[in-house]
Sequence to fold (445 residues):
Amino acid sequence: MNLVMPNILQAENLASDRVLNGVVNDHYAGHESNLVRRWLPVAEWFDDRCDLGLDPYQKYSRGKISATVSGVFRNGVAFSGVNFASQDYLSLSSHLRLVRSVKSAAEDFGVHSAGSSSLMGGCEMSLRLEQAFEKFLEYREVTLFPTGWTAGYGIVKMLARPGDHIVIDFLAHACLQEGASCSGATVHRFPHLSNEAVRKHLVRIRSAQPDAGILVVTETLFSMDSDSPAVAELQAICTEHGATLLVDCAHDLGCMGETGRGILEVQGMVGKVDVLMGSFSKTFASIGGFVATQHRGLRTAMRACCGPQTFTNAMTPIQAAVVLEALAIVSDPEGAVRRKRLAANVAYLRQQLHENGFVTTGEPSAIVPVAVGDSATARLMTRHMTRNGAIVNLVEYPAVARSKSFWRLQVMADHEGSQINDLVCKAIEARAAICNQPTVEECSP
Fold:
């Protein structure tokens, strides 16, 4: 994509293109002995970007999350428009049934868990939620965590110890990667979605260490690329070589599959993966996470020996009540209707983007990644979008490769066709405003 870079820089009266290019690592003052001051240049770089409208992060919404949104950037500048930047796939965040569940739970149980799950932080609502998900997921035990991050980080770090091995997809979520790095186990990262690479790793590890523990880690739906592994084949490979498979289903559970049980349902693997973890913050309109397994006793062990489970407060009764009611909607006819609406919106958005020369990646899901070129192009196009009423999330390094940037469009069941059209029209306008020539050949992200 060709940019009008000199004209833009001159118009903005910038001394350099530092706000249009570069990443956090370029500004981190690692030579500074004061650990706090090392981050000052990073903050100054983000502030300079924010002053010019080139830092789309750390936004604050006003009012309810819905298909439209208003709010402010961290410097107080207001924005409003169609909302493709919130994770509310079935549009449940303001659903009347969930609002009522909050009021009822607050009256019956109060608003605070007041303790760790390993002590007395659980309540009747959290117990009912665990039991409901055991039935929904067809697992013997489901254990709640205060967030999806703590569930992923905690279970990886707990299961694998020094002397063990973790074989993890190169693009697995940061909570899984950090859990692996902190576990003390030997970590092997395999090319994205390559089951054959996993097989080769397991053969090598087993030949050298027949008795070592091996944890294989992947996701059902990768949130940056909207793609999925062949889970049945991967589970068979793990079983053959005595490895344990851990799968993260955060982005598809509830919003995909005939009954809402996600990619595992689509692939015929419900209840068949060794260990399943997920988050409630995408479809279930709340904070929280879980770990599910067929292995009796893992829940008791986690509450005693998993730091993010043992040494932090449990989900509140209100959060548990919200997820429980969201699960009821996911499981009833209304949930099926919402999933169909979501799928139709995803298909229509992808079609409109393709017809207008934009490149999307992965398979149809509530996440639609759109390539928007290098950092400078992406930042300028994103500024144009937000200033003109299309709110999107920009994804840059280190979440993606340094040379590429994406919009991660997040689709909701309640999006209207006119709102999708509005988004695509504004994307076309942004491309035309930033590129020399707004043609598909010379100006396609």
About this structure: Confidence is low (pLDDT under 50) at residues 1-11, 437-445. Residues 333-355 form the longest helix (23 residues). The chain is about 40% helix and 15% strand.
